[in-house]
Structure formats: C-alpha cells, structure tokens
C-alpha cells in the first residue's frame, strides 16, 4: 500500500506545470476578446490587476494547505476551523463555479475547432456536445487524471502562447490596441479585471491534490506562487501581443476565437492550424482535469455530509460517477445555450467570493505577510462591487440567477441535507 501511494506522488516540476496549465488551460482562449471589449487598450492592465489578487490568493491557498496538511481547498480549511455550515455553502457555490468554468472550456473548444473548418453554429454545437459528453465518458472510465499527458499539453500550449505574444510585441503599434473601439479611460481596466477571475482559478485544483505532492510543506508555496506569477506575465504578454496582431476591433468582433485571428494574421494558414491544435488540446485537457477534480470534490463533500449521500457513489473504476455525469451534462448544456459574456461574468463572481474568503482565512489563521492579504482583499472588494453594479445595470439575468442559487444554497441546503441523511 505504501509503495502504491508513493508511486502516485507528484514531483515539483509536474506540480508547477499543472498549476500553470490549470490557469492557462482554457482561460486565455475565452478571456481575451471579452476583456478587450470591456477595457479597450487597458486590457493588459486588467490582467495585471486581477493577476495581483490571484497570485496573492495562490500564496494564501498554499499557506492554508500547509497549515492543515490535507487536500480539499477552501472547503477543508473552513471545516478544520469548525465552520462546517459555511464550508458546505461555499463548496456548493464552488461546484457551480467549476461547472460554469467547464462550460466555458467546452464553449471555447467548439468555437476554435469549428472556426478552423469554417463551420457555423451547428458545427460549433455538435463539437461542443461531442467534447462535453466524450470527456465525461473518459472520466467515467477512470481517465480523468492523465498527469503525464497533461504536462505535455500544458508545456506545448504555454510555449505556443508565449511565442505568439512575443511575436506580436515585435510588431508594436499602439494604435492596434484601440483602433475601431470606443475610447475608454484607465478606470475601465477594473471592469475588464472583474471578468478575468475565471481565467485565474485553475491553481485551486492543485489544493485538492495536496496529499499527493512530494514534500508539499516545503515546496507548495514557492511552486504555486511562482506558477501564478508566470501565468500573470504570460497573460499580459499575450493580451498585448495577440491584440497587436488581431487588431482590437477584430478581437472584439470575433472574441470567441480572438487568438486564432491573431495567429492567422501572424503566420497565415500555418498559424491557424497551430493555434487550433493548441486550443483544442488545451481546452480538452482543461475540461478533463477540471471535471475530474470537481467530481472528486463532490465525493469528499458528500463523504463529510455536506452534500447528499447520493454523490458518494463510486463506479467499478473507482470514479465518483454521479457527480461527474451531473456536472458534465450541465456544463455541456450551458455551453450550447449560454452566452460567452454571461457565463464568464457569473463564474468570475463566484471565484471572486472564494478568493476573498480564502485570503481572509489566511489573514486570520496563518503566519503570512499580512499586508499581502489586505492588498488582495481591497482589490477583490473593489472589483466585486464593480462587477455586481455592472451586471445589475447591463446584464442582470446572470446576477439574478446567481442570487437565487445563493439563496437556495444558504436556505435550502440544510433542508436537503436533513432529508437525504
């Protein structure tokens, strides 16, 4: 038994790669066009503002994971602090957030691959449904966590994105960052930052694997923080370089495939092919790993009696099949029926709440650099207010749906748990 456990241990290089890949996996593919549409030429500043909060949150997650020496992320932190009810409520919101995130990755896969074949809405939906159901099936077969494959995909994806971004920077023309768009002040960077958090949340998945990480107590903080800083830098380079290549107006008009437009403008058909392959593999890997981790999270939460016992079931492949099927099907449905901006904003709001809670817990319960958490909390508070006001004025439906879900989580959850117990 001990040797089996040892063989499952994940080394520092793989942990770093998976942390960076979990953030970049599908995030930049769906975020760039949305952020440029909201913040104009200040898109890179949006990535920086949100990135500062994300890097500090990665530090807080790592410190809390080291303190409690167990997998489970924010749910486990709260549970260890004897806040079981709050842990249960936050975990339900997180599951909703991850479901929305998977939907975004499915959405991105369908649009990027369909664009390469000059396909319309029908092909996009077929591809989205195919990848959603297909990867749900792979997870049920026990193929949800293919670490070695993920490392290869992530490394190739990061390399391609950095080359694209740097190449764009060599073609610098500041007019390309705003030509054709309505002029915006730097304050709009806060609006752009508000929708980016869904693109920065991927490092959380590693906290669910904490007990499998070699020498986690020593390595987890530097690995998670350096991965987050690297991703923030990559996003800024890509935001500037890709917008330079695609042109701001084109990035907004075709925001579902903004990076493909940039690669095609840079290298023609070769760029189209390379970027499509990168986007396809990166988003598929992100769907696969996020679905696996969320399924395992539902199992752990159900085992601790904060979800109905129905979710504790594991199939013959030792996979938490019911959670995976439910989340996979819901995400696929959202991907083919929801709008990109609505899903991005709703998911970002959930992760904003989670980031805020984790930084507050780290501030109060760990020996950390306290002013860092305060910086993150101030950024998260300001951006949270900006996002809620924006949704209330411009796009109230996602806000209303999230409000209803939050009320159900807080009020209906205890009743449902009592009934299923």
UniProtKB/TrEMBL annotation:
Its main location: membrane. It is a multi-pass membrane protein. The chain crosses the membrane at residues 15-36, 42-62, 90-110, 122-141, 148-167, 187-208, 220-246, 266-287, 323-340, 346-362, 374-393, 399-416. One of its GO terms (cellular component) is plasma membrane. It is found in: Cell membrane. Pfam families: AA_permease_2. InterPro entries: AA/rel_permease1, APC_superfamily. The keyword Transmembrane helix applies. Keywords: Cell membrane, Membrane, Transmembrane, Transmembrane helix. One of its GO terms (molecular function) is transmembrane transporter activity. Gene3D superfamilies: Amino acid/polyamine transporter I. PANTHER family: AMINO ACID TRANSPORTER-RELATED, INNER MEMBRANE TRANSPORT PROTEIN YBAT. This is Amino acid permease. It comes from Bowmanella dokdonensis.
């Amino acid at each position: 038994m001990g040797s089996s456990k040892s063989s499952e241990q994940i080394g520092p290089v793989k942990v770093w790669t998976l942390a960076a890949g979990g953030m970049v996996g599908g995030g930049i593919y769906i975020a760039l066009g949305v952020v440029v549409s909201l913040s104009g030429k200040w898109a890179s500043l949006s990535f920086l503002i949100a990135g500062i909060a994300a890097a500090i949150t990665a530090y807080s997650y790592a410190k809390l994971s080291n303190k409690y020496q167990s997998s489970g992320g924010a749910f486990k932190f709260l549970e260890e602090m004897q806040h079981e009810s709050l842990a249960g409520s936050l975990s339900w919101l997180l599951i909703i957030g991850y479901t929305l995130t998977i939907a975004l990755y499915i959405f991105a896969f369908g649009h990027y691959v369909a664009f390469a074949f000059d396909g319309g809405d029908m092909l996009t939906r077929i591809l989205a449904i195919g990848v959603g159901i297909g990867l749900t099936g792979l997870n049920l077969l026990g193929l949800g966590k293919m670490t070695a494959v993920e490392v290869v995909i992530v490394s190739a994806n990061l390399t391609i994105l950095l080359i694209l971004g740097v190449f764009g920077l060599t073609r610098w023309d500041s007019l390309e960052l705003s030509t054709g768009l309505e002029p915006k002040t730097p304050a709009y960077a806060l609006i752009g930052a508000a929708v980016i958090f869904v693109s920065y949340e991927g490092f959380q998945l590693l906290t669910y694997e904490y007990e499998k990480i070699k020498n986690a107590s020593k390595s987890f903080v530097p690995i998670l923080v350096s991965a987050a800083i690297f991703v923030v830098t990559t996003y800024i380079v890509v935001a500037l370089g890709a917008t330079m290549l695609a042109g701001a107006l084109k990035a907004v008009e075709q925001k579902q495939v903004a990076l493909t437009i940039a690669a095609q403008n840079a290298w023609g058909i070769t760029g189209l092919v390379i970027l499509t392959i990168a986007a396809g593999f990166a988003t598929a890997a992100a769907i696969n790993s996020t679905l696996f981790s969320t399924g395992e999270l539902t199992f752990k939460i159900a085992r601790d009696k904060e979800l109905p016992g129905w979710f504790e079931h594991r199939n013959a492949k030792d996979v938490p099949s019911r959670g995976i099927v439910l989340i996979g099907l819901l995400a696929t449905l959202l991907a083919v029926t929801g709008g990109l901006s609505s899903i991005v904003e709703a998911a970002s709001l959930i992760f904003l709440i989670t980031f805020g809670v984790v930084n507050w817990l780290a501030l109060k319960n760990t020996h950390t650099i306290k002013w860092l958490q305060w910086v993150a909390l101030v950024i998260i508070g300001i951006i949270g207010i900006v996002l809620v006001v924006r949704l209330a004025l411009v796009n109230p439906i996602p806000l209303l749906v999230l409000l209803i879900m939050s009320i159900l989580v807080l009020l209906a959850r205890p009743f449902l748990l009592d009934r299923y117990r």
